[in-house]
Each structure stands twice: as C-alpha cells, then as structure tokens.
Design a protein that fits this description.
Layout (H helix, E strand, L loop, with lengths): L2 E8 L3 E8 L5 E4 L5 H10 L5 E3 L5 H4 L2 H7 L3 E5 L11 E3 L4 E4 L2 E7 L8 E5 L2 E5 L2 E2 L2 E2 L7 H12 L6 E4 L4 H11 L4 H15 L7 E2 H7 L1 H4 L3 H12 L2
Parallel strand pairs: 3-4, 4-5, 5-6, 10-13
Antiparallel strand pairs: 1-2, 2-3, 7-8, 8-9, 9-10, 11-12, 13-14
Helix pairs in contact: 4-9, 5-6
Bound molecules: zinc ion and fe (iii) ion.
Length: 239
Amino acid sequence: MPYEVLTIPCLADNYTFLLHDKTTGVTALIDAPEATPVIEALNAKGWTLDMVLLTHHHWDHVEGLPDLLAHYTPIVVGAAKDADRLPKLDIALNEGDTLEVGSLKGRVIDVSGHTINHIAYAFEGAVFTGDSLFALGCGRVFEGTMDMMHESLQKLAVLPPDTMVYSGHEYTLGNAKFGLTIEPDNAALQVRVKDVERLRAAGIPTVPSLLSLELATNPFLRASDAAAFARIRTEKDNF
Ligand code: ZN
Ligand code: FE
C-alpha cells in the first residue's frame, strides 16, 4: 500500500489513526479523542499533522482537537450537514464526495444511525468507520433509526472484502461474548473469539480488522434484514 496507518489508543477505549501518504508525506488524523498520544506518535515518526478527518460530533472524537490546533495547523474535515455541531470545518463534505490526503483518494459514506450525519471515510484498502461499524459490533443507535443504521452498515458491507476496518473503539471482547449468543454455531466466530481473547489478554488492539472477517462473524453486518438487525441491536443494548 502507498500509505501507512498508525493505530493510537486514546482515553479509556478509543482509537485514533494516523493515515500517512508515503508518496507526499501528507498525514491525516481520523478523529481527535486526545492530543498527547497523537503528538507523541507524530514526533516518533517525524510526521506533522496536515489534516484531521472527523467522523461525528461526540466529545470523545473531537475533544483533543483544540490542543492539536495549538501545535499544528491541519485542515479540519467533516460532514457538511453537521457543521453546526462539529468543530470549525475547513472542508465540509457530503455523501459521495471525494477528498485527497496527499495522493490518496477517499470517499465519504454517510453512515447515520449512531448519530445523524455520522460519516465514514473509504480509501483503497481502508475504511475509517468511527462509531458505525465496530470489530464484531456496531455503534449504539442514539440519534437515527434502526433502519438507518442497518442501511449504513450495508453500505460498508459492499466495500471490497479485503478492506481493513479502522473503527473508533476497543469493544471487541464484549462484542465477541454477545456475538456467540446470536450465532453459537458459527465456526469462524468461535475461532475469532479465541483470537480476540488472546489479543486482549496480551493488551494488543483488535482494531483494525478485515472486512471479510466481519462479514463472516459480525452478527450486526450479517443480519438478514432491517428487522433482524433491530432485534439484535436491541438485545445488545440489554446484554
Ligand atoms: Zn460516538
Ligand atoms: Fe465514541
């Protein structure tokens, strides 16, 4: 790949990512939960911060931005329709719009559900999903409807299966335990749960994950229709 992605744990269980274009040296951060770990990672790599791509307005995805703006002058990117409750945007985008991170071309996907106007950023081989699609899970439906969230996940499901899914939280162990209650006989899921347990016991992130693995094991992505999705999401809320 002509880029490198660094996964940076932040706050209690958030992830942020540095997407670095090897061709131009341009570096973008996806969401800004916290500044210090990002600044340390940039210094360690000898990179500077050129862009910040926001997925949604929740505090744990934007709170580190003021501190980062004190150190760098990145172009801040987010959803045009959510501009009134996001930090000040330099580039405001809508579904289907493209953006460039150096020589890398990204596309905006509206993945409303967790919040309305939540967006994901799809690049070749990588999608940054925020709190829409998680490893073995999906975000809680706070602002949108179950139908909306189902449709959003299905937009992600049709990306190339070898796409890496960079999601915003380390919720995978809890999701794994829940997933087994929905699909106890899913052999791929059983194997994955063991892997997740091993990784988490060693303190290793389970994010990113391969979309093809999500398609084989993530019950929220595998729900046959919106009604089945709603049933599973409601069960998870009470799990
Ligand atoms: Zn959120
Ligand atoms: Fe979050």
